[in-house]
Amino acid sequence: MASSRLRQLLGGSLLVAIGLAVAQVLAYLLNLIAARLLGPESFGAYAALMSVMLIASTLALGLQATASRHIVAAPPLDRANVGQSLLRFGATTGFALGVFALLVSPLIATALRLGSWLPALIVAVIIGAFTLTGSQLGITQGHEAFGRLGLMYGSVQLCRTAGALFGAVAGHTLTGTLLGLLVGTIAGVAVGQLIVAPLISNPKVALEGMRNDTWHATHALLALFVLTNMDILMARYFLPADESGLYAVGVLIAKVAFFLPQFIIVIAFPAMARQQDRRSIVTAALATAAIGVVVTLFVRFESEFVVSALGGSQYQELKGEAWLFAAEGALFAVAQVLLYGQLARANRAAVYFLWIAVALFATVVVVAAHDSVMAIVSTALIVAGLVVVAGTLRTLTAADSNPPLTMSEIGEFLEQ
């Protein structure tokens, strides 16, 4: 039984990793092709709108984490009914966010100099529809149906990419591309509903504290998103154009190191929420750190290859600093695991330290460390390290309802 459980976990990890990898490749492919089909001016507007959607997607991520935790906390016989309630809550939340996005779409259109309200209006509808996906993913994750979860990650992004590419090819316009993305997003929600349908049933049940839990999770993930993305904004503001271009390629390296071990937190989060102890958090953090070390060492010794693959030969000046970006991404990946560990235990104080880290990074860069790529990335690396240290100390010193497992208990755990 223990070996069967272990094989199930390893198989689930592989399926989720494949699904996430497919989703990332498809998203990258969409940007690559859109840049060529739309041209610089329209693609610039498209990229800006994608950033708006990325910020709004933190609510979907918050819904996913909260839905997963509620599924895990429910008695096994009630989980299908809880899932129905979570879907309804996700639909209501998505509708509310979509309406809000519609109301502010004229401001977005003006701020991004779109020349028309229509692209911002389409994006508002996309944001509302995509938010429901967060509940679908959370239900599947909470049930630890990792095959379905990996399938959902890949298929939802496939629908979105196919729709956007069809719109871009058909019209070669920003509006056409966004209309295609809207159709693809709706198709992705429909596919997600088919995948999650066997895990839900009527009647729905009351959800205690869902709204507050979702707000807290979204707030925490938004703080992490700001912290992990503000260095590129600082570099764009302070550095000359050519150096900010170098930094942008470095950020690609950091994102690879950040997202590569993403499957670990997806697999581990239900166990974190179920066990409510530090052991599951530390195990996931150590596994994530191990992948980060491998990535950082690879970039350190193969920097020329990595920089050429991601940016081209014109970015070879970045070779000396490339491994710093990999280390930054790896540390933030560990920080994400530790944050999810706090979300699993409903600790609502962790977010404040993240905002302190944001303020610290911004202050140091603005006051002193903004005159080179090395200065900014080194500051980001130090702040990431401080966040990991603080998160580790918080994890190790928090009250733990369960003592460390003995070797015999490990076998029992795997048989569960």
Q: How does this structure look, described?
A:
The chain is globular, with a radius of gyration of 21 Å. It contains 14 helices and no strands. The C terminus is likely disordered. The protein folds into two domains: about 210 residues; about 200 residues, no CATH class. The chain has about 425 residues and is an all-alpha fold.
* Total of domains: 2
Provide mean pLDDT, rounded.
83
Shape: globular
Order of helices and strands: HHHHHHHHHHHHHH
Q: Helical segment tally?
A: 14
Number of extended strands: 0
Overall radius of gyration: 21 Å
Distance between the termini: 9 Å
Which structural category do the helix and sheet elements fall into?
mainly alpha
Question: What descriptors fit this protein?
Answer:
416 residues, mainly alpha, single chain
In short:
The chain is an all-alpha fold and 416 residues long. Helices cover 83% and strands 0% of the residues.
Helix and strand layout, with pairings?
Blueprint: H1 2-73, H2 79-111, H3 118-142, H4 146-171, H5 174-196, H6 210-238, H7 241-259, H8 262-275, H9 278-301, H10 303-310, H11 322-344, H12 350-367, H13 373-397, H14 407-414
